[in-house]
Design goal:
alpha/beta
């Protein structure tokens, strides 16, 4: 009997040893076998990021600076950063695993007055002040063997949706040997564009609209951007963008014609009523009909797209839900933005103001695709009087078009390219593309400032990426918004806050009253009270400071108790998860063993019963 018990105990010990050994091995080697089961696949990289990883030819070093020591002190203000750290760490590990050994990840704790903190400061990381003189760092630095250095000064939890975009953009811009060349020919300085007070208030932008960079600024970090003079050479450019083409010289129009017919890529932003044009009138003056318009119909009409110079697009279904908001101020989203050809990849909403209307006509050898349009409730209004409708009923109005194919010269007397003389389409590398948008306001800072991911600036970036064949960084922004609610924790915190709301409000009021009293005492001291009163002022000051310190301690105790409740909940679940798996694995052989033991006992009873009978 003792031998049998020894065998049973030995078997249980071996099973436990095998179980814990397997768990340890899986913890070390299981990263390559992981499966992302999250709803938005937040721990998986997008296809565009994988392309960037596959294109790496030289080593890249990522340094993740995270003040773990400060985070462990449990400050409430750092809890969101602490949770975000684990997401960023796992995401960067995924980058490293996809890079075929080209990316190495180093996690650094920059403690106070350490060599690591000096390194973080040199890289320009932005610290968050904590208690005392301590500082909390949470940033990412990229270095290459060629001396390239890029940094994200602070990894903010608010940008979790854009974390992959920020990291991929940093790697791509640091490792790309050559950037595509883009030339911008603009008749207006978008950096100085401003709306009149009346217009800005009507469209909900305050007095003159928010300050900030225009949509063109984002291109400069991804492309080699050159501002073109009217007579610039276009032949070596990968793409050309024309903004507000008003009063262009004939020589410039002829150069654009030759560029497109020779296989070039052209993007045009034209407008029948550019409302923020700084060259015609100062901000605050009235809008002058006809003078703020521009178009390139001299070329585009021959290629299958023409804009009416006296009509504006309107759609109450896409306009602001305010009585004063004009129907010509529209936020395009959903079916109003086409994603069929991939040119608008990553774009979810676009704001336009007083946009024109585009008419498409068939031209042999050129295919047209609508990129932006109104809904079925759209219509047209007169440019000189937006309150007066130009169309009788509702219609879908086209605002953006893409033209592709073999383009013939739109100007009489211009030479025809050799590929067209032979009567055959141009080779794939010479296939031309022209993208036309009937709005210039969409590029201004007022239209792009505060816009979410997938807005006007991303439309411009996605358009250029589609035309030049660059990596589509804008498509990374199109991924679903990351929402990971902790419902049980939220309910617990809400219940606790409701129960302690009165006490916390009383303590905060007591602290505020004490600080006001201190300010009053400080003023009395500065005004030079009598010497007999100074001692009383000092005594009152000490008593007030003691009251404030006591109230702050009680307030901190209430906040600490809430944090302790949440931490205890997480601790219970951690223990359950850590012990639940091994316990379940051990339970299976224990049940089997118990079944066999009971079976033997039952068999021995049967034998005894048989002998007795």
């Amino acid at each position: 009997m003792l031998k049998k018990n020894a065998k049973v105990l030995t078997a249980i010990f071996l099973i436990a040893l095998i179980t814990f050994s397997s768990i340890t091995l899986l913890a070390k080697t299981g990263r390559a076998l992981k499966v992302d089961l999250t709803q938005d696949r937040i721990y998986s990289l997008s296809d565009e990021t994988k392309k960037v990883m596959a294109g790496l030819t030289h080593p890249v070093r990522l340094k993740l600076f995270y003040s773990r020591t400060e985070a462990l002190k449990g400050f409430d203000s750092l809890r969101a950063y602490s949770n975000y750290f684990f997401y960023i760490r796992d995401l960067l590990r995924e980058y490293a695993s996809r890079s075929r050994g080209k990316i190495t990840l180093e996690i650094i704790d920059p403690r106070r007055d350490s060599r690591e903190e000096q390194e973080a400061i040199q890289y320009g990381l932005r610290p968050i002040p904590t208690a005392g003189d301590d500082r909390f760092y949470f940033g990412l630095v990229l270095t290459t063997e060629f001396g390239q250095e890029k940094a994200i000064a602070l990894l903010a939890p608010e940008r979790q949706q854009l974390a992959e975009y920020d990291i991929t953009e940093m790697i791509h811009s640091a490792t790309s040997r050559t950037k595509k060349k883009i030339g911008i020919l603009s008749a207006v300085n978008l950096g100085a564009a401003a709306y009149s007070i009346e217009t800005a208030q009507a469209i909900g932008l305050g007095e003159t609209g928010p300050k900030g960079p225009s949509a063109l600024e984002q291109l400069k970090s991804h492309y080699d951007v050159t501002m073109l003079a009217p007579h610039a050479d276009l032949r070596k450019l990968d793409a050309v963008m024309v903004v507000h083409p008003r009063n262009l010289p004939e020589q410039t129009i002829a150069a654009l014609d030759r560029y497109v017919t020779g296989g070039g890529k052209l993007v045009v932003f034209q407008d029948p009523a550019f409302m923020a044009d700084p060259s015609l009138s100062a901000a605050g003056s009235a809008y002058t009909p006809g003078q703020n318009g521009s178009n390139l119909n001299g070329l585009l009409a021959a290629w299958g797209c023409e804009m009416a110079p006296d009509l504006l697009a309107a759609d109450p279904g896409l306009a602001p839900r305010t009585p004063a908001g004009p129907a010509t101020l529209m936020t395009l989203k959903g079916q109003a933005i086409s994603h069929e050809d991939g040119l608008s990849m990553g774009v979810s909403q676009v704001r336009v103001f007083n946009a024109g209307t585009l008419r498409i006509k068939a031209v042999p050898g050129i295919a047209a695709a609508v990129l932006l349009r109104t809904s079925e409730t759209g219509y047209t209004v007169r440019a000189d009087d937006p309150q007066q409708r130009a169309s009788e009923g509702m219609e879908i109005v086209t605002l953006g078009v893409r033209l592709t194919g073999s383009f013939r010269s739109a100007l009489e007397g211009e030479p025809v390219p050799d590929s067209q003389k032979a009567g055959t389409p141009a080779a794939d590398k010479s296939v031309s593309a022209v993208v036309v948008f009937a709005d210039v306001d969409m590029l201004t800072a007022a239209m792009t400032a505060g816009a979410p991911a997938g807005g006007n600036a991303d439309l411009l970036l996605a358009t250029m990426e589609g035309l030049t064949g660059s990596v589509s960084l804008a498509s990374i922004k199109a991924r679903g918004r990351i929402i990971r609610p902790f419902s049980a924790v939220d309910r617990m915190e809400e219940t606790y806050e409701d129960a302690t709301a009165a006490a916390m409000a009383s303590l905060q009021a007591e602290i505020a009253a004490g600080e006001r009293e201190l300010n009053t005492l400080a003023r009395k001291s500065q005004e030079g009270e009598e010497s007999l009163l100074k001692e009383e002022i000092l005594r009152s000051r000490k008593m007030t400071e003691a009251k404030i310190a006591r109230a702050k301690e009680e307030l901190a105790a209430l906040q600490h108790k809430k944090r302790t409740m949440v931490e205890n909940l997480f601790t219970k679940w951690k223990v359950f998860i850590l012990l639940g798996g091994p316990a379940l694995v051990l339970l299976i052989p224990a049940v089997v063993l118990a079944g066999r033991l009971f079976g033997r006992v039952d068999l021995s009873k049967r034998k005894l019963w048989t002998r007795g009978t």
